[in-house]
What does this fold into?
Amino acid sequence: MRVVMIGSGNVATIFSRLIKKGGHTILQVISKQLPNAKTLATELNCDFSDNYGALNKTADIYIIAINDDSLNKLDNPFSVGDKLVVHTAASVSKSVLQNISANYGVLYPLQSLRKEIPDTVGMPLLIDGNSDHAIQLIQDFALSISPIVSKANDEQRLKLHIAAIIANNFTNHLFSLTEEFCKNEKVDFKLLLPIINETTRRLSTHSPADVQTGPAIRNDDSTIDKHLAILANYPKLKNLYRIITDSIRTNR
It folds into this structure.
C-alpha cells in the first residue's frame, strides 16, 4: 500500500520502519515539527512537509501518529474522500476522524515505543474501524507489519491502555525510585536486573498472583519493619512500600 505518515515522533518513526520493512511505500511525512519530518523522510527516502495543504492525495492509507491533544483538536484540516485514515491513539475515539474520510479507524500499538530502539517485532496492534470494510482493510494492513492483531473498540482500547500504564509506566517509576535509592545507599542497581528479568519471564507461563514472592506474601513482619526503618529517610518510597505491602496482603 501507498502510505502517508502524519507525525514524526516515536510512534510515527517505529511504524514507518515496520511499514517499509513490510513492503509498503511511504510517499510522504507530514509534521508540524519540520526538522523531525525531514529527518524521518530522509531515512525513508520520501517527501516531507509541515503543511497539510501539501498533503499527497494519492495514498491508500493515511496514518495519523500525533499526540492525543493534537488529535482531539483536528478540525477537518484535510479531506481524503474515501481513502482509509487511521490514528494510533489509545484514549481517543475513532470518531475524531469522521470528517476526514468515509473510511476511518484505529491502528494502536500496545507497546512502549522510542525511536532509538530497533524495529519492534511482534508488537501487538489493536484495530477498529467505522465499518466492516474499514476493519478488514486495517486488519490486512496490520497483519503485514505485525503477527499480533486484535480488534478492540474505543472502550476496550481505553481499558487496555489503563492496564498498560499500571503494568509498564508505574513499574518503570518504581524502577526509577529504586535506582535513586541504590545510588544514595551506595549499592549497585544493576545487580537487580536478573531478578527483574526473571519476574517478567515468569509471566509468560504463570498468572502474576501465583508467583508473588516477598515478605508481604509471607507475613514476615520482622523483615518489613527493618525495611521501613531503613526507608525512614525516603518518605515517598516508604509510603509506596506500605501501600503495596498492604495491597499484596489483602489480595492473597
